[in-house]
Amino acid sequence: MNDKKWIYNDINNNVVKKISKTFNISPLVATIIANRGIQKYEDIKMFLKNDITHLHDPFLMKDMNKAVARIKRAIENKERITVYGDYDVDGVTSTAILVKYLLTCGAYVDYYIPDRINEGYGVNKYALEKIHTNGTTLMITVDSGITALEEVDYANKLGLDIIVTDHHECKEEIPNACAVLNPKQNDCNYPFKELAGVGVTFKLLQALAGKENFLALINDYCDIVCLGTIADVVPLLGENRLIVSRGLKSMPYTNNLGLKSLIKVAGLEGKKISTGMVGFSIAPRVNAAGRIGSALRAVELFLTDDADIACKIAQELNEENKNRQETEAYILQEALEFIERDFDLNKQKVIVLSNKNWHHGVIGIVASRITEKFYRPSILIALEGEEGKGSGRSISGFNLFKALTECKDYLVSFGGHELAAGLSINKDKIPLFLRYINEYADIELSDDDLIPRIYIDCEIHVEHLTFDSIKQLEVLEPFGMGNASPVFAFCNTTISDIRTVGDSKHLKLSVEKNGILIDAIGFNMGSYEEQFVVGDAVDIACSLGINSYNEQEKIQLIIKDIKLEKNKIIECKYYKTFDSCVRNDIISNVISSQTIDRMREQKENLISFLNEIKINDNCLIIVNTLRGIREILKDIKVSGENKKSYGIHFNTINKKSSLDILINPLMHNLDVTGYNHIYIYDPCFNLSAIYELFNQISYFNSNNDTNSIKVHILFDHDKFEWCKEVMDSIIPERHDFVIVYQYIKTRSINEVYSGNLCLLNRSISISYNTPMNYLKIKNCLQIFEELGLIKLTISDDDVIIKQCHHKGKKVNIENSLKLKKLRSLRDRLQECENFFLE
């Protein structure tokens, strides 16, 4: 189970109230709209109304006048026009709508799709020569061409005019074409920059057709434009959202015979079609043509007026998609084996793999799977002889196109976006490319960037779990890239039932809060069952859905992630890291009276402390007790200091913040440089550790003329009770030994119990309704082993317990040396308190 970082949106309640009141929508919906960054009146109005007539004027796009004039001249002069497409869904749909529209205008038009294997992505000279030889005088690229500088110059020498329509990232120089339509050009003032390739093509159709034919154009082409837009995973905001919303509504009733046949073979006939259905069912079948076979058939599918031909091609694509899935599974398995064998993921942040047996048409999908699994950029390269064609996918915070630009000296060519890109490379350059892209990644990506994020719109409560709430959320559809389905946090709920379904692939929960039972499903999260038990208090990141079964509808949570309730997480981490303290035997009273005097001098009241951390940067707060953690977090929240970024660390600090909280410090590992103030919030279990800290600070201050560290003691006699609570909580009593032994014995198979130590302590605590923690149960087990009752193996948190047949006298727990040592540590703690109070 991968740890994920939950990022909560910073909600401005005044903005939410204003949006809710102005547009008469629920605060929940208003919150999500505000979270999407849509706060201007006109933008919110456009978002909620979602009216296709709000598309921008196409002539706002740079060079649109030139493109329209050249195309109209070609039609009038009966020139041969070739549409130069691409083999993915975006390229295929772009090609289909432009060819189909030009044919209705009486144009003499054909199309050309480069072969993925033999030609690769983009415009190439071989294709230009072939197109020119066939008599074409005007070539229009769709979904490609923005980086084809040399190729456009070559076309110009041939006497072949080029119009480029593209949406990919632009390099510094733009091709010298008759017209270049790409809203991402630096000097293009078009209001919306995130169109897919098919979106840019549609803007060209819109300009050619004129305002008077706009609605007819929408009716004829919006469903195909919708397909290409969803498939290219562009943000579903602005014009993309308008196109997709309208297209999804018309898709079930499409007049396009090819799309109709695809919907049928995908098993979606008669259903309300969603972005997910398009992205995961329809689009892959179109993509399969270009990945495994020829994309020409996919274009033909959308152009044909023959229902039999459409049905035949759709069936062929369906079979190709099955072949693609098999090839994908094979490559994925091989890639995972390479990673396990050859890659050190602790050192290499970008995964680069190559193989001569991989199919170039499928490696992009596999790269997506690799990136999803390991949450780091990945590039897969299919080798053919001494050359390779690669496809990469990235994560938030790492611009893959920019990274390739930095490594261009090792590439033959490249192109793409921030999160997806393609490249060509010579085989002998791959090791250098791997080295330098990882050096670039070391600069751009921190370890924290490699932790998957879940962005939480807001916390919801039981009163939000209504059919009406879910109905209200529909106004936010369609969901997709840039307009994700809302994710909520449903916190501090108790698991009442947990199991797996669907061949153990999926997690099925029933949770209870405020006496209400709620169903929850986690798709492809079956492994999570091993991490939780009935009775666990958990926080769930989820979206809201409705489950229909046996003509009954029930609200259910669609789980995105699940964690122990935050206080339980802190408690578990606390006892694990306190275990390090106990193992290092740090509880000691060896300290000089001079240090005690210095501690008394450094004492400060809590109010002063809270005021100081508001204005001071580079502060370290040392916390030693479980109650201390809860209190300091509460103090920071009450003081308003939670708006400042702060880090919580256990034992050691790996990365410093302007405000750090260090829990259970191992003083010999502490680096005090960079801090201006160090606050000791509650008593250390080892007073000599404070002595060590004072010595380190004294040494630093004596060798630093410009900056000195100030130490502040924030505890008094009463906080020693917090230390006693900790010691009492880790030392087992007689009833603890009884229930732990009983629980393990009754759940052993062939006198062997295996499981997770954290899970075991929570299970016992819930089953017997008694306090139990990680360290207490570990102490119990180690004492059992010492007394010969069990054989114990602990590896990380995994535990194997073998029962021993004890012969002879009855075992007396009181004879345990470990138990005596634990009790002596508690006594020594009292001595520490006495030292401080003398």
Description:
With 838 residues, this protein is α/β, with parallel strands linked by helices. The chain is built from 28 helices and 26 strands. Strands 3-2-4-5-6 form a 5-stranded parallel β-sheet, sandwiched between helices. Strand 14 (488-501) and strand 15 (506-513) form a beta hairpin. The radius of gyration is 33 Å and the shape is elongated.
Features:
44% helix; 838 residues; single chain; 19% strand; 5-stranded mixed sheet; alpha/beta
Distance, first to last CA: 50 Å
Helix count, per DSSP?
Answer: 28
Low-confidence stretches: 585-592
Radius of gyration: 33 Å
Principal-axes geometry comes out as: elongated
Q: Got a strand count?
A: 26
Q: How would you classify the helix and strand content by structural class? A: alpha/beta
Trace the largest sheet across and list its strands.
3-2-4-5-6
Q: Give a quick account of the main beta sheet: strands, pairing sense, barrel closure.
A: 5 strands, parallel
Itemize the secondary structure elements and their pairings.
Blueprint (H helix, E strand, L loop, with lengths): L4 E4 L4 H11 L3 H9 L5 H9 L14 H13 L3 E5 L4 H16 L3 E5 L12 H9 L2 E7 L6 H10 L2 E5 L13 E3 L15 H13 L4 H18 L6 H13 L6 H9 L9 H17 L4 H8 L3 H36 L8 E5 L7 H12 L3 E7 L2 E7 L6 H7 L6 E4 L3 E7 L3 H15 L8 E4 L1 E3 L6 H7 L14 E14 L4 E8 L2 E7 L14 E13 L2 E13 L1 H18 L9 H9 L4 H10 L3 E5 L2 H14 L7 E4 L8 E5 L13 E4 L6 H16 L7 E4 L6 H11 L3 H13 L5 E5 H12 L5 H13 L3 E6 L2 E6 L13 H21 L1
